[in-house]
Structure formats: structure tokens, C-alpha cells
Amino acid sequence: MDSSPETHDHHTSTDPLVTRLTAHGVHGVALTWVDNAGLTRVKTVPLARLADAAERGVGMSPVFDIYLIDDSLTSSRHTGGPDGDLRLVPDLDRLTALAAQPGWAWAPVDRFDQRGGRYPGCQRHFARRMTDRAAEHGLLLRMGFETEWVVTRDGTPAATGPAYGMTRMVELSAYTDDLLTALAAQGLDVTQLHPEYAPGQFEVSVAPTDPVGAADEAVLVRETVRAVSLAHGLTPAFGPAVTPGAVGNGRHLHLSLWEGERNLCADGDGPFGMTGRAESFLAGILTDLPALLAVGAPSPASHLRLEPSRWAGAFQCWGLENREAALRFITGAPDDPAAANAEVKCFDPAANPYLVVGSVIAAGLAALDSGAALPEPVAGDPVHQDQPRLPTSVPQSLDLFLRSAVLREAMGDELFEAFAAVRAAEAQLFAAHSPEELAAATRERY
Ligand code: GLU
Ligand code: MG
Predict the structure, then answer these.
(1) SS3 for 48?
(2) Residues in a beta bridge with 193
(3) Closest Cα partner for 303 from 386, 240, 388?
(4) Which residues sit opposite 29 in a β-bridge?
(5) Is residue 258 within 6 Å of ligand 1 at its C-beta?
(6) Which of 294, 411, 428, 439 has its Cα between 20 and 30 A from that of 161?
């Protein structure tokens, strides 16, 4: 079967999966997708209905595509109103028994219309279409998201030790142990877990994989962190801004480009060893970053985080291992060309990870064969070097997004307009909020 069917016609037998999950004590399967507000929404089915869900899908209204973070609704040209139904079809290749939620398994869904056709608003399918488009250019992408969060207990940080301090690992030793155990049991290849800069903040990163897989894993990692936290009487805050005026949570995207076994970010003639194709792809991302920001830092709360001197990448520039540049190039060790990659630092956890990977690929591909070169890299703090600041509000980034022919074409009108409507409505929703009110309304919502 084609990896990207335009209609839904699964014939995979679920019997072996059901047998395996039954042996794991699974009774129910959570079927998730991420909406345009960046929230993971769900329908669940008892395990006995999994075969039916895989065959026919589970009904769900398309109206969630115009839901905001507070569960109020907006509308857009193609999407909205009480009518219509979609079918949520689980991707059985990603079916995972949830280690921190005994009795439950999880699978991400693709969304189809009632006749089995692709639903144009499906964010996961957008990510896959862009991945396929890259493959048509001979490119494979490897991607991975970093997950940052603040662990709180009764509204205050649950670990008081210093940034990157071992104290925090001792304070929350059992919690972090359970977390590593759960992530590993779910087949996630964790590369690092560490205490981050902000009080009570931690970060976990997973090994790179294909773009849709990276977005799926971002969902699975977050929900695993949430489940382990709650089991320990802790609450995770995944919002971009936890405390206004302080370092927030990023969700940086790492990416590398490959032709077969060859990493195009290494062993080339371009800056710091990247190849010409990688340079042009990254130049496309850098050029479009102000518009991409509407996708990757989509909430008004994103702009409480995206400030200079917080390693959030507030400037539209790039540099070698420069943590203040929005695009950070990493060569890795000289004897490990596979490790070379680029990191988009300005993105945060309010973003829909499927839209992030799809949009970044679209921007990169738009410049791929143009011969576009990167500008001079920036070393040192860009704040002192007259570098352009990325947009500082949602209305600013949304305006650039709406003018992006590349992103409109890539997403298609239906997804593009529904997404833009949610951005505009959230900007409106929070327009009169103080920074404290905005952080409070968003930090534990994602
Ligand atoms: N927490 C920072 C952010 O908001 C990132 C720190 C780091 O470089 O990992 O993106
Ligand atoms: Mg970090």
C-alpha cells in the first residue's frame, strides 16, 4: 500500500495487536490528534473496538479545527458550524501501550471524510504530504523535538535546586526515574534528560526520526510526562510562559537532511561543512521564519517567552552553536558526520508539531533548488549586532503568515484559513490580558 493513500482503505489485521495489548492489560485505546490551537484532543475506544476503528474510523466533528485554547470557537471560510462529521483512523504502526497509564494504549489518527477521502484540514496528513514532497526532491528528513516543562506542586516549582543542578535530580529522583522507565517502555529513544534553567524546569530529548514520527513522539512524550507527573502528585506546565519576565519553555526542532545514507549537513563545501542543498534549505527556513513563527510560536503567550537573552532565539539570524540565534547550526564531533544538524530555537510547546514539521519542510523546499545562500553567520549575542528581531506579537507574525504564498499553497486553503482564524481569535481573546493573566491562562493548558 502507498504510504500516503488519498483514501482510507486499511486492511491490516488487528488481531495480533489486540492479543499483544490484551497481554499488556490494555482495555482502552486513546486516539489523538492535535488541533489548530495546539491542544491534543482525543476519542477513546475499548480495545475490542480497535479493529472497527481501524476499518471505519471513529466519528468526530470537524469543528475542533476552529477551537481555541479555552474551548471557545471561532469560524473560518471552510470550517465551522455544527454540521459534518469526520472519521478518525488510528495509525496502527504507532499503536503504543502507555506505560504510565496502565490499561491504556495510544495511537495518533489521520482524519478522513465520511466517504473515506482525505480531509484537507488534517494536520498530520499535511506533515506527511510535505515529507513525501521532500522525497520527490530526493531528500529524507530526520527531525526531533526537545520537550521542556516546569514541574509544579500546588502552583510553585516542585524542585528548588539550581539550573542544571544535580540537586534537582536528587529532589525528584523517583519521578525522573519513573519518567525514563515509562518513555523507554514505550519504545522512545531518549537521548538526554536534564534540569533546565527556569525553577523546576526539566527537558527531555529523543533521537531523530522521520518528520511525522517526530511529531507523533512529541505528543507521546508530553502525555507521558503529564501522566508520570500526576502520578507523583505533580503538575507539569508546558505553556511557553510559566512566569512572565523569566525563561520559558521552548520546543526546539532539530532537523537534518539526507540523500540516502549521506547527511547533507556535513562533508560539504558550504559554511561549517554543510552542502549547497542543505544551505539553500536552511536559507529558505531562515527567510520565512517571521511567517513560520505564527506556526511555531503561535500563542500570545509565546511572545512572553520569545525575548532576547533567554536562549529562546528572538532574532532572525543563524550561527554556529549560537543559542541566541533563532537558527542554530550544530556540526557535532568531527568523526560523527551523522550528528550535524540545525535547530530551530524560536518554536515553543504551544505549536502543533505536525504543522511545525510540515511548514518547515515547505519553507525549506521553496528555496532548495534556488541556489539560495545563507547570510553571514552571527557569533556572539545578536542583540549587540543589529540583527532583525522576529515578530513580537501574534498579529505581526499572522500578518506575514497570511501573506506567505508558500505556506498557503503547502497547507491548502482549508487548513491555512482555519489555522489563521484560530491565531487571530486567540490574539483577540487575550488582547486585554496582563502578562500574569496570560501566563496563568495558558501555562497548564497545553
Ligand atoms: N528554555 C529556553 C527556551 O525558551 C531554551 C533553553 C535551551 O537552550 O535549551 O527556548
Ligand atoms: Mg533546553
Answers:
(1) helix
(2) 204
(3) 240
(4) 45, 105
(5) no
(6) 439
CA of 149 to the centre of ligand 1 (A): 10
Say if ligand 1 is within 6 A of residue 251 CB.
no
User: Residue 116 has which C-alpha cell?
Assistant: 473515506
237 by Cβ neighbours in 10 Å (0-12 / 13-18 / 19+) ranks as buried
Instruction: Calculate helix-pair angle for 211-231, 173-185, nearest 10 degrees.
Output: 140
- pLDDT above 90: residue 334: no
Index of the ligand 1 atom closest to the CA of residue 305: 4
Q: Is the CB of 356 under 6 A from ligand 1?
A: no
Residue whose C-alpha cell is 489548530: 36
Q: In the chain, what are the domains?
A: 15-119 (3.10.20.70), 129-442 (3.30.590.10)
Give the whole-angstrom CA distance, residue 346 versus residue 214: 17
Average pLDDT over residues 120-133: 98
Place of cell 526537545: 146
Q: Is the Cβ atom of 323 under 6 angstroms away from ligand 1?
A: yes
pLDDT above 70 (res 6): no
For the packed helices 394-402 and 413-429, what is the interaxial angle rounded to 10 degrees? 160
Mean pLDDT over 246-250 rounds to 98
- Name the closest-CA residue to atom 10, ligand 1: 250
Q: Dump pLDDT digits (tens) for 65-124.
A: 999 999 999 999 988 777 789 999 999 999 999 999 999 999 999 999 999 999 999 999
The pLDDT value recorded for residue 3 is: 47
